């Protein structure tokens, strides 16, 4: 009943259970806790946590300006690189009913809420605006060499830091930012 074969089978079973728990833990760390770290081998263009900040900011504006209904007019300058109709911004604005996509920054003049790529120079929007940049994704062009492999494996450190890859700026007209509407001044 008790022999070396039984001990070997129990040891292999315990090793299998430990390997499953470690694999699940590593998968959880990569998928949840380090989802915005482009140093991971599984996603080198990682969506940043700032996307959630942008979504929360838009929700706060909707609650304040349109009583919680998703009919706040949002204008998006679609440049084809950072903001595309199939990208992160499109997913983020999927529940809003009054989103307008424009092909030129001049078409967004005098609008209340504007999303534009940060790579552009501050545009002339025809009034006073307040802007806040948000990082959509980061990219890491970190070569994994033999010298840096141990640091990457143990601490997820690389020789170069991840850089913002896609970045947008949320522009709010000054009256929306202050919490008053333009009709209050007429």
Beta content: 15-25%
DSSP strand count: 6
Gap between N and C termini: 93 Å
Oligomer: single chain
Tally of separate helices: 5
Q: Could you say which overall geometry the principal axes of the C-alpha atoms support?
A: elongated
- Class by SSE composition: alpha/beta
Described by strand count, sense and barrel closure, the largest sheet is: 6 strands, mixed
Mean pLDDT score, rounded?
A: 82
Helix content: 25-40%
Main sheet: which strands, in order across?
1-5-6-4-2-3
Q: Uncertain spans, ≥5 residues at pLDDT below 50?
A: 182-186
Rg measurement, Å: 24 Å
Order of helices and strands: HEHEHEEEHEH
Key phrases:
single chain; 186 residues; elongated; 6 strands; 6-stranded mixed β-sheet; 5 helices; alpha/beta
Q: What secondary-structure arrangement, pairings included, does this model have?
A:
Blueprint: H1 4-33, E1 45-47, H2 50-65, E2 74-77, H3 88-92, E3 99-102, E4 113-117, E5 129-139, H4 146-155, E6 163-173, H5 174-178
Parallel strand pairs: 2-3, 2-4
Antiparallel strand pairs: 1-5, 4-6, 5-6
């Amino acid at each position: 009943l008790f022999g070396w074969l039984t001990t070997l089978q129990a040891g292999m079973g315990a090793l299998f259970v430990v390997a499953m728990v470690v694999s699940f833990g590593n998968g959880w760390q990569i998928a949840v806790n380090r989802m915005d770290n482009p140093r991971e081998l599984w996603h080198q263009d990682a969506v940043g946590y700032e996307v959630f900040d942008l979504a929360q900011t838009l929700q706060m504006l909707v609650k304040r300006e349109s009583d919680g209904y998703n009919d706040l007019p949002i204008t998006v300058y679609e440049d084809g690189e950072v903001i595309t109709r199939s990208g992160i911004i499109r997913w983020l604005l999927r529940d809003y009913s009054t989103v307008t996509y424009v092909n030129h920054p001049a078409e967004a003049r005098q609008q209340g809420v504007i999303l534009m790529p940060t790579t552009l120079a501050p545009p002339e929007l025809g009034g006073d605006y307040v802007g806040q940049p948000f990082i959509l994704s980061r990219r890491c062009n970190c070569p994994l060499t033999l010298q840096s492999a141990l640091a990457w494996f143990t601490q997820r450190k690389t020789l170069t830091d991840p850089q913002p890859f896609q970045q947008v700026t949320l522009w709010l007209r000054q009256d929306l930012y202050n919490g008053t509407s333009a009709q209050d001044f007429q």
